[in-house]
Amino acid sequence: MSLSDAPPKAIATPCVKVCIVDPESGLCLGCQRTLMEIAGWARLDDDARDKLMVELPGRRSLIRPEKLGLA
């Protein structure tokens, strides 16, 4: 099998299959990305995806805890 016959590398994603966008924060309750970030995810290069993945955990504080089931 040549390199060109190899299957494409899987794209890393923070998606957890909980796709509900909070209208207050504009963030997905599952992955904390915006709709624009979700829509453009496949077009980002690995470095841009990695940078955004580092930012995502800090975004949880932008969503009211009761919406995340933490209250």
Quick description:
The chain has 71 residues and is mainly α.
Can you put this structure into words, describing what you see?
The mean pLDDT is 91. The protein contains two helices and no strands. It has a domain at 20-68. With 71 residues, it is mainly alpha-helical. It has helices spanning 35-40, 46-59. The longest helix is centred in the last third of the chain and has 14 residues, at 46-59.
List the helices and strands and how they pair.
Blueprint: H1 35-40, H2 46-59
Summarize the amount of helix as a percent range: 25-40%
Mean pLDDT: 91
Give the beta-strand count: 0
Count helical runs.
2
The rounded Rg comes to 15 Å
Distance between the termini: 53 Å
Would you identify the regions where 5 or more consecutive residues have pLDDT less than 50?
Answer: none
Helix- and strand-based class? mainly alpha
Order of helices and strands: HH
Outline type: elongated
The profile of the biggest β sheet is: none
Strand content: under 5%
What features would you highlight for this structure?
71 residues; mainly alpha; 2 helices; elongated
